Amino acid sequence: GPPFTHQQTPRKMVYYGQTSCEQDTERYLDVVKYVFSSYKKEVPLVVNTMGWVKGEGLLLLIDIIRLLSPSHIVQMDVYDWKAMAPLTPEYVHLTPGLYTKGKQQAKCKQMGTSGAEHWKPSEAGGDASAPEYKLLYVHPEFPRAGVAGEARVHSSILRDMSILGYLGQLQSPDIGAVLPLHSLVPYQVPFNAVALRVIHTDVAPSNIMYAVNASWVGLCRIPDEIRCQTDGPVLLTQTPVCDCLGFGIVRGVEMEKKLYHILTPVPPENLRLVNCLLLGNIAIPNCVLVGQQGVEGEIPYVTSDYNYSI
């Protein structure tokens, strides 16, 4: 079945916090480097690259190929679409990436009757040797194969299904009905026990709790010890590249007792390692909030009293 039906705990994971890396390609590369550094080459590794292969996306893909040094590349083309050249070793060797340089070809200039004057390739431009890998080029022959607008299921739906599959671990297998959020018992986390960071945008400290409440967060571990002279919250000034141990929903924020109420299927032995909450641009599926059963009056976290002119 599709991936959301058989989710597994990854060996190494970083919460990027956005559905596209277009706004922060540098951090995306840092994340790839961090995760790849844990690969010990004890088993073959298959890297499923993203589908952004136009403009800067193609340049970023070239950077990733240089970074990972694969032994094989499988390139799947689209019928009657010639926008992307075959990623041959020579092409990757010569083409500049978004952050890396390509190897310049040797140039020659005619000098009248005295012959040719040669310029050697710049030593600063790229690696000294061309990458060595085998390109497996797949080119379908049937019309409209792989056209993005005709996909059976859009990526946003698959993403929601992955989140729902993950949250399904919160449900008890002994109960037939699905329990809504307000029926699940959350963990209580003191403000000063975890650091907090919003990844995708700048949020004023006075508004940070409004952003965190009822949000999807990455449960992460940073190497630095959390030190706070007050009872919190602890706000990070930069987004760390660190291990993510799982995900959760901030079900509520209790300002009087300085507590986060977090729902998560992460086991307690791993939760003891969590000291950082990262909030990204990943939304909880609407059905989780709107479809809460057994609620009289207003549904928690849901309101129709909203001014769209703001």
TrEMBL record:
GO terms for biological process: cleavage in ITS2 between 5.8S rRNA and LSU-rRNA of tricistronic rRNA transcript (SSU-rRNA, 5.8S rRNA, LSU-rRNA). It is found in: Nucleus, Nucleolus. Keywords: ATP-binding, Kinase, Nucleotide-binding, Nucleus, rRNA processing, Transferase. Residues 184-285 form the NOL9 C-terminal domain. It holds the Pfam family NOL9_C. One of its GO terms (molecular function) is ATP binding. Its main location: nucleus. It comes from the Eukaryota. Belongs to the Clp1 family. NOL9/GRC3 subfamily. This is Polynucleotide 5'-hydroxyl-kinase NOL9.
